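User: Run a structure prediction on this.
Assistant: Running it now.
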Amino acid sequence: MIPFFAFAAEVRKVIYTTNAVESLNTSLRKAIKTRGAFPSEEAALKVMYLALRNVIKKWERPLHRKAALNHFTMLWEDRIRKAA
């Protein structure tokens, strides 16, 4: 936990968005679980598509994304350039 607080506040807010990934997984699991069984793989994919479409409506962009990216670039410039 202590290394987490070593980052700037903007970085912590962007890192904290991993909860969004967990929320997405929960939404997809909930959509599939309520149906029980599917007649085909295509039917399951359609349910997941519709669930994603509903979840995306609620998404917001992280406010301090650019500041966090600048901070990451200062810390790990070589890694950021390879990833881009």
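The first helix runs from residue 2 to 5.
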